[in-house]
Amino acid sequence: MSSSKLLRGTFILTLGTIISKALGLFYVIPFNMIVGTQGTVLYQYSYVVYSIVISIATAGIPLAISKFISKYNAMGEYALGRRLFKSGLLVMTCTGFIAFLAVYLTAPYLAEIIITDDDLHSTVAEVTTVVRAVSFALIIVPLMSLIRGFFQGHESMGPSAISQVVEQIVRIVFLLGGAAIVIYVLKGSILTAVSIATFAAFIGAIGGFAVLLWYFRKRKANLDNLLLDDKGQLTDISLPTMYKEILISAAPFVFVGIANPLFQLVDTVTFNLAMVKIGLGAVSETALTIFNYQTHKIVIIPVSLATAFSLALVPLITRAFVSNDQTSVNHNLDQTFQILLFITLPASVGLSVLAEPIYRLFYGTEELMLGTEVLRMYSPVAILFSLYSVTAAILQGINEQRFTILSLLVGILVKLTLNIPLIERWEAEGAIMATALGYAVSIIINLIVIKIYANYSFKLVFRRGVLIAGFTVVMMIGTEIVYKLLTLFLSTNSVVSSFLLLIVTALIGAILYVFLAYRTKLIYILFGDRAERIKRKLHLPF
Q: Which regions span the lipid bilayer (predicted)?
């Protein structure tokens, strides 16, 4: 694949991911209005299961399949990839159906692990229902991931990106429409509305799958023409050998993809138990939903943006490492870490400063105080989320992906060990602390591996990180002053006032931060000529 085509394909996939995540964020506003707090509580129990399933399907298999097909296509062995694809359709269909049955049949036991009926508003029976509703998506998602990997292996990123967006749109339309009809037209129960909302994952998967089938039919003739040029020299490679290669390649990506959902799963399983133990079962589910679902979806925003920029540099790191070009390895790693910090630090601090109007806009005034406190504390953890994703990707680039599994397992162990004691001491804030500590340990392991195996020094990143942190502190002080002044005239009691508070303060904070970056020339070091083009287009005076 040419460099320009690689960048174009990466851009298409990144754009599709960003659009999908944006849609997945903003639907929560009307959904929360339809089903209320109790409905959102129920939904988040199934959301963790759904997140793990989607992460496994989208993080590992497509990339592994695409690498396999791309590798053998480059050798002229097109029939190998087609043979894998045909057998994979059967395997993934069976795997999806078995996974569906496993989750559906074990849902009562999963529900008993997640929740007890004591002192909580939700019941085991209700959680069982919503988990079973989301399990239907497992029938299609693995099959869909295989087809996406097949297209990506043929250097065609459009079908994956478009199917991803269509899947999300169909899911959200069905989710909101179904829940609204149940509540407002049929006058049904919250449980029924939430079950429809979780079942929407299956309907969305059908939409995404239909897009992929359409693309396959449209391009089948061209794909078949490739078989005419097949060299046929590797006919001795068996299907078990292919699948072994795919699983070995996919495993690290799967672990990275499910890292965040696994941390959420630990909270889902342990939070209610700890809160009931200290006599706070009555507010446990509300607090769990606020930090494990509602604020989490907001915190992920800067993570998605930062990793999208930073991960684009990972192929360059791989190429330089394979070529044994230490100078380029160091330069690319410097750029990756600096861009990550440059974007994530101010974004996470900004979220923390503006926690109250942001939470108000998304979730209304109900539990506004608790939501604000949780979001304010949770926002800085976005830096750790981003660092983990990028350091894990770098380990892939330097061919040390085995350590991603080790670092994640150690991080999860730290989370499991500390979660209940910290929750008993500080409630929701304790769970956030345990998450931060778990991620911090995983990141430290990844950084040590990068230092040793890539022979990399963090001195420059540390110096620039201090500079970026200084800019962020100045921005934070400026935004705090502006925010306090605006609250003399505006309040978060209304949506309009909250929106004005958010927009005006965020705009001034961004201008202050960008001004400092331009004046010190840091932005030119990080983004080169693009920084100058942006400056001219926006007619910036500095």
A: 12-35, 47-69, 89-110, 130-151, 172-190, 196-216, 246-266, 298-318, 339-358, 378-398, 405-424, 430-454, 466-486, 498-518
